[in-house]
Amino acid sequence: MMEDSTIITKKVSCPNCKNVLSVQGTTGETIEIICPNCKTASILSFPKEKTITKTTNQSAAVAVQNLEFKYPKSDKKVVHNVSFNIKKGEILGLLGPNGAGKTTTQKIITGLLRNYEGTIELLGKNLHHWNIDIYNKIGVGFELPNHYQKLTARENLELFASFYRQKTISPMKLLEMVELDKDADQLVGTFSKGMKSKLNFARSLLNNPEILFLDEPTTGLDPVNSRLIKNIIKEKRKEGKAIFLTTHNMNDADELCDRVGFIVDGELVLVESPRELKIRHGKKIVKVEYLKDDELFRQDFNLQNLADNKDFLDILRTGTVQTIHTAEATLDDIFIKATGRQIK
């Protein structure tokens, strides 16, 4: 016997021509819609009815069920029926445009915002049952660094280290890790934006946390320093840390995350691994650029039976191939298709 489902009507804008469509579906349903004007295809998900569920995944370092939140004096929910979990040794990325609810979700889980609905468990214990001891278990790197400008980098870390009830990692060891050891005794007020960002990241590691919350960790960094921070994040995953990453940088998410969640207007549209998403939404073709008589040609080949494709093999044998790659979808492409929005 089929369960009763509520029929929902949504008005959505075509991501290409902005034509407004009225679409009907049932709760929990995901459908493909095609704009009658420009024929652009996109995916629309109708939210599931709110259900009260009990967390049973004891292996999850972070378990969030049916999370809802609205700010005081506001009727609008900025987080609506959000559920996900993060295992130890896993990076989950929450992706969305500015104002989507990413940072709000992180602030709720880390205890900075209260009066939420739903269930949050950290390390198998309900967040309501944790006292300040939870801050000995987690590390938080905010998007906007918050340091004492008239203290040095070393003094800042020493001050924050004094707040913990356990042994912390040596400030100089952390400064060396993020390549700020030569600037350890320089006033933070003289630091560049990138240096402050690296110090902010180092501070999140002071207590050797089991769970790491990072909000836009590579903001303000040049490519070299961005690579440095991303390599450290990968090392922390190998050490078994559970890492919650909020970002609108699709390249960072694609490289770092085991799974990504798309959030728009406070609703979590999907949670899946970047690899599976790209395979599912990409075209199964190979694009080849090659030179012939000093002229550049481009040709697409179907992946199926590619090894037996005579034209493809002939191009390879000529030795004039310039580029060759598959036509996998990017996370940007998939986000737009799944949400009808573009991350900016």
Model description:
With 344 residues, the chain is α/β, with parallel strands linked by helices. It has three domains: 7-45, no CATH class; 60-276, Rossmann fold (3-Layer(aba) Sandwich), CATH 3.40.50; 283-327. The chain contains nine helices and 17 strands. The longest helix has 16 residues, at 223-238. It is globular. Residues 50-57 have low confidence and may be disordered.
Termini Cα gap: 45 Å
In the predicted model, the low-confidence regions spanning at least 5 consecutive residues are 50-57
Helix fraction?
Answer: 10-25%
User: How much is the average pLDDT?
Assistant: 87
Compute the number of structural domains.
3
Radius of gyration: 24 Å
Key words describing this protein structure:
344 residues, Rossmann fold, 3 domains, 4-stranded antiparallel sheet
Draw up the topology in text.
Layout: E1 7-13, E2 20-26, E3 30-34, E4 41-45, E5 60-69, E6 79-87, E7 91-95, H1 102-109, E8 117-122, E9 125-126, E10 138-141, H2 153-161, H3 171-177, H4 193-204, E11 211-215, H5 223-238, E12 242-247, H6 250-256, E13 259-264, E14 267-272, H7 274-281, E15 283-292, E16 295-302, H8 310-318, E17 321-327, H9 331-339
Parallel strand pairs: 7-12, 7-13, 10-11, 11-12
Antiparallel strand pairs: 1-2, 3-4, 5-6, 5-8, 8-9, 13-14, 15-16, 15-17
